[in-house]
Amino acid sequence: MAEEMVEYGLTLEQKAAAVVVSMGVDQASEIYKFLTEEEIENLTVEVAKLGHLTTEQTTAVLDEFYKTCLTQKVVTDG
Fold first, then answer.
1. Claim: this prediction has a pTM higher than 0.90
2. 72 exposed, middle or buried (CB, 10 Å; 0-12, 13-18, 19+)?
């Protein structure tokens, strides 16, 4: 995963960790089913390192994730 810095000073890895944490255990476990062992390890490390995010940071990350999902759906559905 790339270490580029993004909005609110969060890396892409930190954003992925924030999304997983926001989902909760049950939903996050469904995501983990589609990841490789290396991706699971990397994401788990990021979740452990994440620390506290402000409400604004969390909202921005989830909004970006939602918009990315919509864009992907449009691309795949045509």
1. no
2. exposed
